[in-house]
Amino acid sequence: MIVLSDNANTHWQLWEYEQPDVCLVFLKNWHEELVERHSLNLDWRANELVEKVASKCNNTVVVTHSGGVNVLPWADHPNVTAILAAHYPGQETGNAITDVLYGKVNPSAKLPYTIAYNESDYAALPTTSVNTTGPDDWQSYFDENLEIDYGYFDAHNISVRYEFGFDLSYTTFNLSDVKTVSLSSEHITARPKEQKIAPGGNPALFEPLYNVSASIANSGERHGGTVAQLYVTFPKSSPTGTPPKQLRGFDKVFLRKYETKTVSFALMRRDLSYWDIEAQDWIIPKGEFTLSVSFSSRDLKEVIKIAPLPG
Fold it and tell me: What's the average model confidence in pLDDT over 45-71?
C-alpha cells in the first residue's frame, strides 16, 4: 500500500516484484462546514497519482470519496477500467466497496450531479481570490436562474463526461411502452383555481393532471435495480431561460433477471407550470410538452407528447 499526501515525493517505486492483477487507487476530497473548496480536483495530487499507477497497471480501479462534483481527467486512460464514486459511505465503507467490486452487490445508484470534462465547463467556478476590496466582491446573485447542473449544460450544448442520473450496472435494462393518461375530469386552465394558501402554496398546484407509465425490463443475467427518470420539455411559448428539460419524477425498481415491471409518475399542475412574475401566479403555457422517460438526463429512451392547453 502506498499513501500519498500533498507534500509526498511521487518518484517512488510502485511495486518491487511482479505486476498485480488489479490496482485499487483510493482518492478523497475534504468537505466541511465553513471551508471553501478551491478546486474541483480531488486532493493530494490525485490526478498525478492515477496517471502514475495507470501507466504501469493495466487494470486500475479508482475509488473516490467526495461530497460533491469532481473532474476526472484520467477517466479516459485505457488502463483505468472502473471508477466507483463512493461518496461518504460511513463505517461500512470497506464492506460496501468490497461487495460492489466483487459483484456480490449490483450497484444501482445514480449520479446526483453532472461530471464535466473541465472545471471551466461549469457555470459558477470556485472563487479563490479577489483583487479588490469592494463590498460586493463575495456576493452571489444566483443569476443562473433555472440553469442549474444539467439545465445549464443542456441549455448551452456542452458535452459532459458523465451526465446527471448516469450509472453503470452488472446487468442491462430496457425501457418501452410509455403511456400517458389524463387524470383531470375538468377542463384544464392556464391558472390554478384560487384556494386558501396552504404550506407549499395553492393546493391546486399539487393536483395530478396526468399519469405517465413505462415498462422496465431487466434483460441481463444478474438481478439489479435502476432508476427510471421522467423529464419534461416545456412548449416554445415558455419564458426565456426555461431549461431544455426538467426532471419531474423518478422511481427506483429492483428486477430479477428477465423480469419486467411498470413504473408510473403522477404529473401535477405544478410540474407543468412556470412562475409568471407579472401575474404573480403559476401558469401552464400553451402548446406541446415533451415527456421523456430515461435512465439519465441524456439517455432519453422513450418520448411522448401532451398538450394541456393547445397552442
Answer: 92
